[in-house]
Specification:
single chain, mainly alpha
């Protein structure tokens, strides 16, 4: 998945899939490092999306308070 077109929901679904695979020992040793790196990138992406959305909501609330 390309980061540019990735939605928060898609990233979370992929994270859940990776976590399930790891919990169920479905990730081979050869794939483990790559999947952990992917999970780390996805977590950073989700955190960034949540922060940006939170900031946007705060700005909207502040604008509404002024009106």
């Amino acid at each position: 998945m390309k980061k540019e077109s990735l939605t928060y929901e898609e990233a979370m679904a992929r994270l859940e899939e990776l976590a399930r695979r790891m919990e169920n020992n479905e990730t081979g040793i050869d794939q483990l490092a790559a999947e952990l790196k992917e999970a780390r990138r996805l977590m950073a992406f989700c955190k960034e999306k949540l922060y940006a959305t939170d900031e946007e909501i705060k700005k909207i609330w502040e604008t509404d308070k002024k009106e």
